[in-house]
Amino acid sequence: MGIPATIEEIFGSAYSSAIYISRILHLPPPRQKVFILGESGIETELDSESIPHICGTDPSFRREMTPQDFISLSLPSDNPSTTLDPAVGIVLAGLDFHTNYLKLATAYQYLTRPAEFGGPALFLATNTDSTLPSSKSLFPGAGAVTAPLVRMLGGMEPLALGKPSAAMMDAIQGKFELDRARTCMVGDRLDTDIRFGIEGGLGGTLAVLTGVSTREEWEGEGAVVRPGYWVDRLGDLRGGA
How far apart are CA 117 and CA 134, in angstroms? Predict the structure, then answer.
């Protein structure tokens, strides 16, 4: 596309999560550590804000659950030698290509921790996209990682810090001082990208038909989210230049 950009101008959902945790939440010590359900990208962004974390790409979590794990993950009242980290105050979920029972079980223990042991950890998500488009097909997205926990927690959803989160829009505006009225949101998903632009009060929204959503979804009767404009592919913008 020939569009100039620098790393400082890229504002992803993992970075949004790190900013929210470090500059907005201000968790009191010692509950400042993050349990990650995700990959190295989340770790990198948390490291950029000096936020301590566990799990993520740690090989010790990429294995099968053992009978001993059921014992070691039990609460301190039943097990003084529990392996649960008392400093964990947040469970942050994102796209995790190595999701397993051990990770979900550990996250669940933190999210349901009784008050006498510090209370439950906060449940955050980088994003809750149900699917991930790749190689002209769809695969499970980050929302597929949080779904089992949401079910176990009786329907309690995580606070999502990616699109269409208002918190993410505020963080972007604060960093870049952008003029919302002169900004257009470009994306391929109605429920995240286009909704993000509409609810964020941007001047325009442009849907691109090379990803998830289709024209039929917003042109049909009763469509909830409709983009202001659309193109078949992003490269079409060059043709109109």
Answer: 42
Segment 120-163, tens digit of pLDDT: 999 999 998 888 888 889 899 999 999 999 999 999 999 999 88
Contact 212, 133 (CB under 8 A): yes
The rounded distance, in Å, linking the Cα atoms of 46 and 34 is 9
Instruction: Phi first, then psi: give them for residue 70, nearest 5 degrees.
Output: -60, -35
> Alpha-carbon distance 36 to 51, whole Å?
11
Q: How far apart are CA 211 and CA 133, in angstroms?
A: 6
**Separation between Cα atoms, residue 178 and residue 30, nearest integer Å:** 36
Cα distances from 193 to residues 37, 86, 163, 165, 189, in angstroms, run: 23, 37, 6, 10, 5
Among residues 113, 183, 190, the alpha carbon closest in space to that of 153 is found at: 113
Tokens of 200: 């964020």
Give the whole-angstrom CA distance, residue 130 versus residue 146. 10
Report pTM.
0.80
Amino acid identity for residue 221 in this structure: E
DSSP 28: P
Query: How far is the C-alpha of 229 from the C-alpha of 168, rounded, in Å?
Result: 23
